[in-house]
């Protein structure tokens, strides 16, 4: 490197879509929308001002409809995301409030838009859950769209870029991302966004490397700068040195070869070398993710986190709306199972839209089944929607979250039966084959697993919360993240207890927490008798690939020695000594699930 060569800069962001790309940066222009001036509008012109705003919204809506129409085939299922943006355009919290501010404060539309959008984004950003915080991004994107129309500026049309480049933008909306031409755009980097943002989901579907949430990307990177994006590790390298370049070219080749090898086995069953079949399922948050589960070779949906449909809106979804969405998923997956978890809102997934209504200690508050039992009307609507959607199918399972003991299950089942009775009276021909299960994610449920097993058809272990509550580690708190230990002997013993209780009572035991999607834990989970694992779709191929290299009989013996260990460190050592070459391959794609962060 000569003295005049710019220095290599390494930044870390959120790896939203795995893979490595190396190429020239292309900054997507976003003219002027950040410079908004406030001015007062004379009373007699207020009607005009409101109309100007309404026209800008209409134009934004027309733009989005056009993008939806032009959406390429492989992204068809994501058109729903764009439809959410269309709906947001008319949301009372945004649209209604802006009209109100123009009127009351007698200000220009741009200023009202900027103010309302900023307040709303701030409210969402204060929420405990990543997913909710990222809904602020949706609001920002929709606001930008209206702003461009108000100010007569334009976002560069991504469709027209005709060089092979890596996009660098402050933000890319799902509408823009869905216009990416794969033969031109190698990957992208944005200042904003996170792993569960819709833009991230689209990048994963397109299978292009993407890094989001790199605060200063657009201020540091210049057009034509050579950059490296590693969407697997979250690294961004600007002006890489020759050594770095060589290292990443090698890594990219290895990664692609590994991915291709694993992809060849995507649709083969996950069978151990001695013939034990493990069912590998996908966790989804949005109905459109079903496609990824199928593409990556999932055997069904092990966890459908239904709470996400209650977001980006000011009202609760209707029974019909929910039922339609559930049916889409059930139909696409049939005959494979679809496990619909009833609302797990509040706690780390606050539904309330105002920070002052947040609970002081949400993780221990009115969440999961407690919320539903306290608000039976909300619960009933969801259960009716599930039962209606399941009619005519026999692949549906209902899963109750955050159960701490028997009473909650009995109460939930009473409501479920009442709902089924009333639907039958209304003439619905309901499915008779719906399986009922509970999440085992509260320590008391582990202790009571034998009793609980008598009331349900299956148990699904949610390790994200189980670890949080057992080890007293806030799953979202970075300060204690190092203490969040899936291999803590207490956790391993709990898994054993749940698995034994399930077997003795002849019910199935599954796992759908993050632990299920990390290959490192596989020998222990298999050895403890957990035969169904559910994870973020992206992790499915690697998990299947690793399972094929394990011998079930050995894992049983291995689990016994794991249970004799007294520290997480000792268990990890045992894993490395026994299975190191299989479990710790550096290109293994881990299923980064929602949580823990
Ligand atoms: C869990 O707690 O492990 C789980 C799967 O549920 P969630 O991450 O949605 O709380
Ligand atoms: Mg949970």
Automatic annotation (TrEMBL):
SUPFAM superfamilies for the chain: Enzyme I of the PEP:sugar phosphotransferase system HPr-binding (sub)domain, Phosphoenolpyruvate/pyruvate domain, Phosphohistidine domain
Binding residues annotated for phosphoenolpyruvate, in chain numbering: 305, 341, 464-465, 475
Domain of life the protein comes from: Bacteria
Phylogenetic classification of the source organism: Bacteria, Pseudomonadati, Thermodesulfobacteriota, Desulfobacteria, Desulfobacterales
Domain spans labelled PEP-utilising enzyme C-terminal: 260-551
Organism: Desulfonema magnum
InterPro entries found in the cross-reference section: PEP-util_enz_mobile_dom, PEP-utilizing_PTS_enzyme, PEP_util_C, PEP_util_CS, Phosphohistidine_dom_sf, PTS_EI, PTS_EI-like, PTS_EIN
Record keyword Secreted present: no
Function in brief: General (non sugar-specific) component of the phosphoenolpyruvate-dependent sugar phosphotransferase system (sugar PTS). This major carbohydrate active-transport system catalyzes the phosphorylation of incoming sugar substrates concomitantly with their translocation across the cell membrane. Enzyme I transfers the phosphoryl group from phosphoenolpyruvate (PEP) to the phosphoryl carrier protein (HPr).
EC number: 2.7.3.9
Enzyme class: transferase
Protein name (record): Phosphoenolpyruvate-protein phosphotransferase
Molecular function in Gene Ontology: kinase activity; metal ion binding; phosphoenolpyruvate-protein phosphotransferase activity
Binding annotation for Mg(2+): 441, 465
Reactions that this protein is recorded to catalyse: L-histidyl-[protein] + phosphoenolpyruvate = N(pros)-phospho-L-histidyl-[protein] + pyruvate
One GO term (biological process): phosphoenolpyruvate-dependent sugar phosphotransferase system
Domain PEP-utilising enzyme mobile: 162-234
């Amino acid at each position: 490197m000569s003295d005049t060569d710019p220095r290599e800069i390494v930044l870390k962001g959120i790896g939203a879509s795995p893979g490595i790309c190396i190429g020239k940066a292309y900054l997507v222009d976003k003219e002027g929308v950040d410079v908004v001036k406030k001015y007062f509008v004379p009373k007699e012109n207020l009607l005009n001002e409101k109309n100007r705003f309404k026209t800008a919204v209409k134009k934004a809506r027309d733009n989005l409809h056009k993008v939806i129409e032009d959406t390429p085939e492989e992204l068809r299922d994501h058109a729903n995301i764009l439809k959410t943006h269309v709906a947001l355009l008319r949301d009372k919290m945004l649209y209604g409030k802006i009209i109100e501010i123009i009127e009351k404060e007698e200000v220009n539309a741009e200023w009202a838009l900027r103010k309302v959008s900023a307040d709303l984004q701030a409210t969402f950003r204060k929420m405990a859950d990543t997913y909710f915080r990222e809904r602020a991004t949706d609001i920002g994107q929709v606001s930008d769209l209206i702003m461009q129309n108000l100010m007569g500026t334009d976002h560069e049309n991504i469709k027209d870029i005709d060089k092979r480049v890596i996009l660098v933008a402050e933000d890319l909306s799902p509408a823009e991302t869905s216009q990416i031409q794969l033969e031109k755009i190698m990957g992208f980097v944005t200042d904003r966004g996170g792993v569960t943002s819709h833009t991230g989901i689209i990048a994963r579907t397109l299978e292009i490397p993407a890094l989001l949430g790199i605060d200063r990307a657009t201020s540091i990177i210049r057009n034509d700068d050579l950059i490296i994006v590693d969407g697997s590790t979250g690294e961004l390298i600007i002006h890489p040195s020759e050594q770095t370049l060589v290292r990443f070219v090698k890594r990219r080749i290895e990664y692609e070869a590994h991915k291709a090898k694993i992809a060849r086995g995507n649709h083969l069953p996950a069978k151990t070398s001695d013939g034990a079949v493990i069912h590998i399922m996908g966790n989804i948050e949005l109905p459109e993710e079903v496609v990824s589960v199928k593409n990556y070779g999932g055997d069904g949906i092990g966890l459908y986190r239904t709470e996400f449909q209650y977001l980006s809106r000011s009202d609760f979804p209707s029974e019909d709306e929910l039922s339609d969405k559930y049916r889409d998923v059930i139909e696409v997956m049939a005959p494979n199972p679809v496990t619909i978890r009833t609302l797990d809102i509040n706690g780390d997934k606050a539904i309330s839209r105002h920070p002052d209504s947040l609970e002081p200690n949400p993780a221990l508050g009115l969440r999961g089944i407690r919320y539903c039992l306290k608000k039976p009307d909300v619960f009933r609507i969801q259960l009716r929607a599930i039962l209606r959607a399941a009619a005519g199918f026999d692949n549906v399972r209902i899963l109750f979250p955050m159960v701490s003991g028997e009473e909650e299950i009995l109460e939930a089942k009473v409501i479920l039966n009442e709902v089924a009775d009333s639907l039958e009276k209304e003439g619905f021909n309901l499915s008779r084959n719906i399986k009922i299960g509970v999440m085992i994610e509260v320590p008391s449920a582990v202790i009571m697993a034998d009793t609980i097993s008598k009331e349900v058809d299956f148990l699904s272990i949610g390790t994200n919360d189980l670890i949080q509550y057992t080890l007293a580690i806030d799953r979202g708190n970075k300060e204690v993240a190092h203490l969040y230990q899936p291999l803590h002997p207490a956790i391993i013993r709990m898994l054993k207890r749940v698995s034994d209780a399930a077997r003795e009572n002849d019910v199935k035991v599954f796992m759908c927490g993050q632990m299920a999607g990390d290959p490192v834990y596989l020998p222990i989970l298999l050895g403890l008798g957990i035969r169904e694992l559910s994870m973020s779709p992206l992790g499915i191929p690697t998990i299947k690939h690793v399972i094929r290299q394990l011998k079930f009989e050995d894992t049983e013996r291995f689990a016994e020695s794991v249970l004799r260990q007294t520290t997480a460190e000792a268990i990890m050592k045992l894993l490395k000594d026994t299975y190191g070459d299989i479990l710790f391959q550096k290109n293994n794609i881990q299923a980064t699930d929602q949580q823990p962060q």
